[in-house]
């Protein structure tokens, strides 16, 4: 990421339960359900979606919402850490940083300054499958934002001097997010084991040594290869008209030639046949168990059912994991699970935080036993309906935020291959039955399919 | 539909500027609108009910959503000084049970409709929110009204929440940013001011149900609260339903919460937090701030934007990150409180850049103060702070928060409407005056969090700031613990610590080991004894000296491996013995004296060899020897004798009951023969503890006690074992 999320400290340290972790949650699109038939239909000025493809392959998706005179703009490139060659892990993230260090017409650091002066906010992020650039500004500044994003796509000027200083910045980010955060290290170890043999075994932060080995030429090649209109999606959400957005998109991006893209890499994870376990001992005050059951990638038809399963397990204080581990057994202070889904593979991520007086083996057993109960016992209709209601409501609440909608649309397009997945969410949970949930639990929530990492204090509790 | 009268740039005028940009090249002068148009807010209807509850209904019907936000003036500043965390504990407990609903029923009800319900306490307020789909309006309102008015604070639920709060105290230590930040707050405000106090294990453990009930009873009152209802709602309908839901809520007088004056800063006050293994140093710098209601606030915030509030538009980020590559993040900040808070600069960097970065930050800060800012910089700040305001109003929660904030600080809604004008009307003179008045690079609290080894070999932290003036505290200690001068801290670190892990390290003969294994088994096994971190014993009894009997009551805390505190109450007063593993003190008769050497030795003894349970830990001392020394009898019971010889050659014979393998007697032969007798074993706190304990010197009874209470692992903090 370019900027620490909280560029101002939380006003309180006295927050409730604080849980760390550099988990990049590639959120799965959510559902809208029968609610639409019970209430009046949304007004025409909220929710109209249009999609276009420019001649050079740039996808342009527009979501109209005239509620506030604001636009949220996403430019996401279909490239992420999984595309990095071995020995150059961290390049996609370094590239993201370098994208702000100057272009033909915009000086180093000027991109953000201009957005700031326009009354906007901006940032960027690098994930496994995608690198995303975004801005949020008063709607009349859309033209500025598109101009700046087009400059990034086409006119970047990469210099050795900037590479040298930005490399150090990226290393500082690595140190603050990973090296000095025990929970991040545990998640890093988890990935390493769960996705072994694939590029997903290492996340976007890369390796320190690799960062030192990335040359200017590497970055130039990376930029030329992947930062192309036919490898990108532009999403604009807010108080805009689709035809105006299209026109501005053509104006700023239309002249950028398409690139010859490398053939897509298909990554597959050999199925696990045996549970994988590791224990890390570190100076950690709040131990945690992080695990995951191997899952297929984003396109698989079981994904919506897995979302239902994760809500039953983990959503709200009435959810199974919270009730069993936190309330009944009091063996954990926080526990949950959710699908972490990439393009080509995924994991049902599970976790439980516990205090050092608890026995990690017992915590693990309690966590797994409750998850496996989904496989051995059918769920009742009320629980199923609750999960569907929660997914529906989540979708509607999400519409209140333009950046949330812009992200969901971009994700639908880039990860799921079709922006309409966002809207399909209205119906895709309808037909799911209790039997479906049980089948999916039986298929995936098996110990031989599980990787589990325990992070505990070294040499007993302090 | 909301309407906005923001000036709309025609496509043509926008394009004109775009073209100008293409021609101008890299020095971009993007169009600045001197845009002071008022910002339109959605319709807000405000009424105050008879019981004093102010209700604000914000009609924003674009989505079928309703958000209820009840803001209560109850926060950290209202907590008693030794109950830090009470406001949060209370907030978290609200939904854990009411007079008509259990915690599970509440959770099921809100979860079933896919809504959210929660309460979060901050420095001066608690926000209780419920968010539901419009069709579930009544569910949301009923639950919110119930948890606010009728919480019952069940003990069982308290246990769960308490554990979560204790876990969050631990979790804070795992995050170097949060920990450094908490230490800066303490360095600035101390414990006399609520901003300086952090939740700790002892403050959370001290909170009782009575505390929660009292806190709720005092502050959760309609005349101390504002309810905002926003979304797809109609004001009149909402108001009548809200009236009904809160009609039984009684008003009451709210006691004021006066804030003490923090101690003025003079020069640099440096607090170093040692966290071994840190590869990155966190730097927090701060002084006092100003209230959001202060007339200087907006000019100050504008100036701050230039220094460090404006991200890539700020000097600090440009210089320290973009040019120097020293960090990923640096920012400066004033919070919004109704009282003067703080000003802080926050950053981090790899260890070998720590001092250079610190100096660079201070230099930039000084330059800022001395030179002020330029018109161009002010303009950029105004463009952002005025121009981005509408982003706050985009979402329902952003809108609600903004409106509640205006009300909370006593501003009318015109503060939002006129924001652009307020911001753009600030002149360069005003901004630079705010810099002179509100920013002070000469008098600062500075916190560094890193591995203390980065100080090795340095005589100065900064030019003119001797290393002797750096006080160091360990990351595991409570945030409010006394920091030790650097040399003293190093000495404490280097001092032999004693084992923190129960392991077979001593030289033990096979027969002695067999005996010890049975002794461990008698106490539930080695793993069980290994979990002991500290013990607490309360006794009552008598000392016998020179024919006199002195009746006493005593409490003893022992924290492994080598800390002890004992308070003794007798008719003449009270004495305390305190030992931190290296030094000791005796407190009594209004005086505190250093513990004399003989007493120090006795105390060390007491922990290692004279405690019937903890003596088992001596197997972890490498230089110790264990062997069997025959058999004996104690009070008619057969015993096996285990002889322990310490690394210094001290010998103790422990008599273990031949059947039960619990220690019956400890014998030390020195210039006097000292014996400890242990009997009347009872099972308490998971262990066998002798409830009758006697001490003899040369066969004469010198002390006799009965145990009143015994606890394991109370979490007693290290600060309890420091000089009082």
Features of the shown structure:
A: alpha+beta; 6-stranded mixed beta sheet; 11 strands; B: 724 residues; alpha+beta; Cytochrome Bc1 Complex, Chain A, domain 1; 4 domains; disordered N terminus
Task: Report on this structure.
The complex is a heterodimer of chains A (462) and B (724). Chain A has 462 residues and is of the alpha+beta class. Chain A has helices at residues 35-38, 91-98, 110-117, 142-154, 160-179, 182-194, 208-213, 216-226, 242-253, 303-314, 320-328, 360-376, 381-398, 402-414, 421-424, 434-444; strands at 46-53, 59-65, 70-77, 121-126, 131-138, 232-238, 276-282, 288-296, 334-341, 345-353, 450-457. In chain A, α4 (142-154) packs parallel to α9. Chain A is globular. Chain B has 724 residues and is α+β, with helices and mostly antiparallel strands. Chain B folds into 4 domains: 2-34, no CATH class; 44-171 and 196-245, Cytochrome Bc1 Complex, Chain A, domain 1; 268-494, Cytochrome Bc1 Complex, Chain A, domain 1 (2-Layer Sandwich), CATH 3.30.830.10; 507-721, outer membrane lipoprotein receptor (LolB), chain A. Mean pLDDT of chain B is 92; it is low at 1-33. Chains A and B meet through α3, β5, α4, α5 and α11 of A and α1, α2, α3, β5 and α5 of B.
Q: Gist?
A:
The complex is a heterodimer of chains A (462) and B (724). Chain A has 462 residues and is an alpha+beta fold.
Question: Topology, pairings included?
Answer:
The complex is a heterodimer of chains A (462) and B (724).
Chain A: H1 35-38, E1 46-53, E2 59-65, E3 70-77, H2 91-98, H3 110-117, E4 121-126, E5 131-138, H4 142-154, H5 160-179, H6 182-194, H7 208-213, H8 216-226, E6 232-238, H9 242-253, E7 276-282, E8 288-296, H10 303-314, H11 320-328, E9 334-341, E10 345-353, H12 360-376, H13 381-398, H14 402-414, H15 421-424, H16 434-444, E11 450-457
Helix pairs in contact in A: 2-5, 2-8, 4-9, 10-13, 10-16, 11-12, 12-16
Chain B: H1 11-24, E1 44-48, E2 54-59, E3 65-72, H2 86-93, H3 103-112, E4 116-121, E5 126-133, H4 137-149, H5 155-174, H6 176-189, H7 201-206, H8 209-219, E6 225-231, H9 235-245, E7 268-274, E8 280-288, H10 297-309, H11 315-323, E9 330-333, E10 342-350, H12 354-371, H13 375-387, H14 389-392, H15 396-408, H16 414-417, H17 419-424, H18 428-438, E11 444-450, E12 460-462, E13 465-466, E14 470-474, E15 484-485, H19 486-494, E16 507-508, H20 510-522, H21 526-530, E17 534-545, E18 548-559, E19 563-570, E20 573-579, E21 584-588, E22 591-594, H22 597-608, E23 625-634, E24 637-645, E25 651-657, E26 663-669, E27 673-684, E28 687-697, E29 700-712
Parallel strand pairs in B: 2-6, 7-11, 7-14, 16-23
Antiparallel strand pairs in B: 1-2, 3-5, 3-6, 4-5, 8-10, 8-11, 9-10, 12-13, 14-15, 17-18, 17-29, 18-19, 19-20, 20-21, 21-22, 23-24, 24-25, 25-26, 26-27, 27-28, 28-29
Helix pairs in contact in B: 2-8, 10-13, 10-18
């Amino acid at each position: 990421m370019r900027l620490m999320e909280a560029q101002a400290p939380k006003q309180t340290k006295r927050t409730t339960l604080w849980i760390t972790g550099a988990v990049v949650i590639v959120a799965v699109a959510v559902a809208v359900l029968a609610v639409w038939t019970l209430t009046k239909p949304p007004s025409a000025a909220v929710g109209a979606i249009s999609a276009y493809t420019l001649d050079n392959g740039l996808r342009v998706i527009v979501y109209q919402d005239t509620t506030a005179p604001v636009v949220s703009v996403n430019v996401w490139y279909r490239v992420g850490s999984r595309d990095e060659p071995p020995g150059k892990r961290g390049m996609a993230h370094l590239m993201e940083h370098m994208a702000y260090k100057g272009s033909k017409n915009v000086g180093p650091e000027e991109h953000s300054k201009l957005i700031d002066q326009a009354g906007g906010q901006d940032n960027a992020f690098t994930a496994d499958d995608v690198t995303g650039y975004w801005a949020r500004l008063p709607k009349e500044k859309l033209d500025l934002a598109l101009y700046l994003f087009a400059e990034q796509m086409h006119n970047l000027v990469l210099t050795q001097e900037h590479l040298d200083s930005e490399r150090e910045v990226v290393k500082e980010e690595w140190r603050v997010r990973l090296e000095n955060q025990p929970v991040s290290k545990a998640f890093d170890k988890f990935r390493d084991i769960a996705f072994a043999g694939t590029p997903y075994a290492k996340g976007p932060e890369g390796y320190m040594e690799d960062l030192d080995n990335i040359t200017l030429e590497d970055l130039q090649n990376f930029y030329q290869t992947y930062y192309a209109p036919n490898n990108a999606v532009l999403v604009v959400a807010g108080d805009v008209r689709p035809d105006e957005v299209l026109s501005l998109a053509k104006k700023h991006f239309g002249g950028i030639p398409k690139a010859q893209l490398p053939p897509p890499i298909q990554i597959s994870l050999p199925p696990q046949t045996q549970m994988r376990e590791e224990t890390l001992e570190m100076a950690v005050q709040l131990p945690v168990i992080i695990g995951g059951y191997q899952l297929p990638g984003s396109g698989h038809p079981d994904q919506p059912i897995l979302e239902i399963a994760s809500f039953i397990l983990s959503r709200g204080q009435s959810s199974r994991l919270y009730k069993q581990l936190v309330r009944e057994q009091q063996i954990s202070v926080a526990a949950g699970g959710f699908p972490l889904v990439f393009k080509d593979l995924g994991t049902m991520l599970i976790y439980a935080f516990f205090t050092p007086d608890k026995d990690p083996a017992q915590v693990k057993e309690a966590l797994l036993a409750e998850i496996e109960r989904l496989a051995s016992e059918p769920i009742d209709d009320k629980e199923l309906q609750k999960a569907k209601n929660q997914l529906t409501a989540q979708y509607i609440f999400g519409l209140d935020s333009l950046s949330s909608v812009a992200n969901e649309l971009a994700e639908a397009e880039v990860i799921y291959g079709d922006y309409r997945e966002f809207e399909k969410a209205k119906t895709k949970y309808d037909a799911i039955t209790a039997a479906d949930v049980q089948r999916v639990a039986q298929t995936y929530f098996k110990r031989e399919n599980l990787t589990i990492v325990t992070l505990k204090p070294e040499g007993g509790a302090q | 539909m909301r309407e906005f009268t923001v000036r709309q740039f025609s496509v043509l005028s926008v394009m004109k500027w775009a073209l100008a940009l293409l021609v101008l090249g890299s020095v971009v002068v993007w169009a600045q609108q001197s845009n002071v148009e008022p910002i339109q807010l959605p319709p807000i209807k405000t009424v105050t009910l008879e019981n004093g509850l102010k209700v604000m209904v914000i009609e924003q019907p674009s989505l079928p959503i309703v958000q209820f936000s009840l803001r209560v003036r109850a926060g950290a500043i209202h907590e008693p000084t030794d109950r830090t965390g009470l406001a949060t504990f209370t907030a978290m407990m609200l939904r854990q049970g009411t007079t008509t609903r259990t915690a599970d029923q509440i959770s099921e009800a809100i979860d079933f409709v896919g809504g959210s319900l929660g309460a979060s306490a901050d420095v001066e307020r608690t926000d209780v929110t419920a968010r539901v789909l419009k069709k579930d309006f009544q569910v949301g309102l009923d639950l919110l009204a119930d948890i606010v008015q009728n919480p019952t604070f069940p003990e069982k639920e308290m246990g769960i929440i308490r554990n979560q709060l204790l876990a969050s105290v631990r979790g804070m230590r795992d995050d170097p940013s949060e920990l450094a930040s908490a230490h800066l707050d303490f360095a600035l405000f101390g414990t006399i001011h609520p901003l300086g106090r952090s939740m700790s294990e002892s403050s959370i453990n001290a909170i009782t149900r009575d505390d929660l009930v009292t806190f709720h009873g005092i502050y959760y009152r309609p005349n101390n609260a504002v309810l905002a209802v926003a979304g797809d709602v109609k004001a009149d309908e909402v108001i009548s339903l809200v009236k009904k839901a809160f009609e039984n809520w009684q008003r009451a007088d709210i006691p004021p919460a006066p804030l003490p004056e923090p101690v003025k800063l003079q020069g640099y006050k440096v607090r170093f937090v040692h966290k071994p293994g840190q590869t990155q140093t966190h730097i927090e710098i701060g002084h006092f701030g100003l209230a959001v209601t202060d007339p200087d606030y907006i000019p100050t915030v504008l100036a701050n934007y230039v220094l460090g509030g404006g991200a890539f538009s700020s000097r600090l980020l440009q210089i320290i990150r973009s040019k120097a590559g020293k960090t990923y993040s640096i920012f400066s900040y004033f919070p919004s409180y109704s009282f003067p808070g703080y000003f802080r600069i926050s950053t981090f960097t790899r260890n070998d850049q720590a001092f250079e970065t610190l100096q660079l930050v201070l230099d930039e800060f000084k330059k800022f103060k001395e030179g002020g800012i330029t018109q161009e910089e002010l303009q950029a700040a105004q463009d952002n702070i005025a121009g981005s305001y509408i982003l706050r109003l985009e979402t329902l929660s952003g809108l609600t928060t903004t409106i509640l904030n205006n009300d909370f600080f006593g501003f009318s809604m015109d503060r939002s409407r006129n924001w652009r004008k307020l911001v753009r009307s600030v002149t360069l003179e005003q901004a630079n005056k705010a810099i002179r008045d509100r920013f002070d690079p000469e008098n600062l609290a500075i916190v560094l969090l890193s591995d203390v080894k980065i100080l090795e070999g340095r005589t100065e932290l900064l030019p003119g700031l001797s290393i002797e003036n750096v006080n160091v505290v360990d990351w595991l200690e409570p945030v409010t613990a006394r920091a030790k001068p650097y040399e003293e801290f190093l000495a404490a670190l280097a001092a032999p610590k004693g084992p923190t892990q129960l392991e077979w390290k001593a030289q033990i003969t096979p027969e002695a080991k067999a005996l010890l294994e049975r002794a461990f088994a008698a106490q539930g096994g080695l793993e069980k004894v290994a979990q002991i971190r500290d013990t607490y014993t309360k006794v009552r009894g008598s000392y016998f000296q020179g024919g006199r009997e002195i009746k006493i009551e005593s409490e003893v805390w022992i924290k492994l491996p080598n800390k002890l505190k004992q308070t003794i109450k007798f008719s003449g007063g009270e004495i305390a013995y305190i030992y931190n593993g290296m030094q000791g003190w005796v407190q009594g008769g209004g005086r505190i004296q250093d513990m004399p050497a003989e007493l120090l030795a006795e105390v060390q003894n007491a922990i290692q060899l004279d405690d019937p349970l903890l003596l088992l830990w001596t197997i972890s001392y490498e230089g110790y020897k264990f062997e069997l020394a025959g058999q004996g009898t104690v009070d008619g019971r057969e015993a096996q004798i285990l002889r322990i010889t310490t690394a210094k050659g001290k010998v103790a014979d422990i008599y273990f009951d031949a059947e039960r393998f619990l220690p019956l007697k400890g014998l030390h032969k020195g210039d006097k023969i000292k014996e400890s007798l242990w009997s009347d074993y009872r099972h308490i706190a998971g262990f066998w503890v002798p409830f009758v304990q006697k001490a003899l010197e040369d066969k004469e009874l010198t002390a006799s006690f009965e145990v009143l209470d015994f606890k394991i692992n109370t979490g007693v903090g290290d600060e309890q074992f420091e000089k009082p």
